[in-house]
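Researcher: Going back to the complex we discussed earlier. I've cleaned up the inputs and rechecked each line, so this should be the final set. Can you rerun the prediction on the complete assembly and write out the structure?
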Amino acid sequence: MTDTIIFVLAGAFATATPLLLAAIGEVVVEKTGVMNLSVEGMMAFAAAMAFAVTYQTGNIVLGFGLVVGASVALSLIFSILVLGFSANQIISGLAVGILGLGLSGLAGRNFENLTMMAPANLLLPVLSDLPVVGPILFRQNVVTYFAFAAAFLTWWFFARTRHGRITKVVGEEPAVAHNLGFAVIRIRLFAIIFGAVMSGLGGAYASTILTPGWSDGLIAGRGWIAFALVVFGTWRPLRIAFGAYLFGALLLGDLAVQATGFSVPPQIMTSLPYIMTIVVLAAVSRNALLIRLNAPVSLGQNFRPSK
Amino acid sequence: MYQIIRAPLLGAVLSMSWSGALFAQEPLDVAIMAPNAIGDVGWDHEVVRGKEVLEERFGDKINVTVVDSVGEGPNAARAMNRLVANGTDLLILGSFGHMSDGLALAKRSPDLKVLHIGGYKNLPNFATFTTRHYQTSYLCGMAAGYATKNQRLGVVAAFPLPEVLGILNAYVLGAQSVNPDLKPVKVVWLNAWYDPARARSSVGSLISQGVDVVYSLFPGSPSAVAAAEEKGVYAVTTLSDNTTHAPTKHLCAGQANFGVVYADVVQSVIDGTFEGKDTFAGVAEGAMEVAGLSKDLTDEQRAAILSKQDAMREGSFDPFTGPVMNNDGSEAIASGKTLDTSEIKSMDFLVQGIDSQLQN
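Model: Rerun complete. Updated structure for the full complex:
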């Protein structure tokens, strides 16, 4: 029984990592008032690239490095459309996302159904050997620690720093930010690039560490889950981290329950994460104030600085 | 969403590459359509690998074209129409989901012959076939029964459909036939044909239950096999030899050879004796065989497995021969009785020794 619980609680960190990385990227983008719907495509493209490069060179750091570059390139297309030409954010995001999915199939075509070994998890002296707590908290991959640290740093950035507040103003009232002398477009550009890098890392993690292998459709909706997590966590990074962990645990709970031979209709277990999402969203929506306080007012609206 | 971009590209490529085929008279034009991108193992790999068998056997008497990544949906109908317009004589459809579009096309084009893998509907010019995976599954079950140290087997399976239940039951019967101490077999249903992340997690979940041989039963990707290798437990799998994904821990695979069936059908088209019938091909026809047996099995164990395979080939042994008990305690197959094809294809029970319940 303990083994089953450790399996779920430890595995949830790993399962949550790609969701959390992408969601943290997206929350920063949305906080500046830009709705980026290309997360799924960005993750897929990054996943294919990361696997292809790592498989060929055996160097996972190089894989992650190139992914950062590729994601930035893809996000620049989105930035040019949205920030340069004031194109509709939803349509542009979907278009770039579809492009990313298409490119992922192209980049991964020669790597279809290949697998490789995942890099070993971090082992910390003493801590990793602790009973129960050790395997749950201290035998994770370094990217997992990075993801949860990123959630904390993002919270700190928005709550405690001057730049964080400026970023929020850009998302609330871009005209005011502009009149106060802040470069709205530049701040939005940086946010979009940051978001792309994070979702790229999430995709790369999925194809090289979480499920080390590539096949078309590997990302399987993780980008959309990350997108939903932002709303689920009402644009608050620590809540998003909690939501990602909960989602990861529920996904594994299904497999763990089945393996014990316990008889629960599998359809119920499989749909549990989604049911939970709906329940939490409904609960969150009941408190309209909470959403209004945290949702960026100008989300989805383009801003053109008047000359 | 990927399909949206792929469709026009596909159309362009098809029309360019086969415009010449219109004028060719002599060779038989065979087209194979696979639902996903082609990997080095797995369903689509096997669907397309049949091409090699055809080319080896018929040489320049046939002309084989392969189209991949055409899943169920409007693209499938478009791709089929295009292939037929380009003069395809025999269309081999590699996805269950191609059934309704293929049937509609076969009705419209009486000169066309269609061979559909995995379906259950026939027309005079629409044949179907499935392979007896349960036979090799029994043999791999023997290997698992020999190899397990904890006496605990685990299975990661796609959907609880009759075919999958048959494969699972045969596997457990095979393991029990050589290992009387086996503990109840653990099963995780993915309820998906393709979900590499959950397939991989399932392996971890089974290992946390003490499982030391994992059977990856139609999970759509080699990720469960790779995860078994990584975690140091044996891997058994369906469809293809997965040794490349588990170099040290590959225990056994039920290798499918669709090409054998393709070749028979092509021959019947050439001879003018094509029938819209259903074929259920197995070890006897050469359509199934065990592959990738682990070096860790002793010579005696391997010989026992192969001699069982020979017995299947000769028809002197069938895995579903009674008495077999249902895991709810009732009798599933009466003593002395052997299930016939339709009973195997409509299997709706789990045998004794499987720690899982079917939901109705």
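Model: Worth noting: The first strand of chain B starts at residue 28 and ends at 33.
Researcher: Good, that matches what I expected from the previous run.
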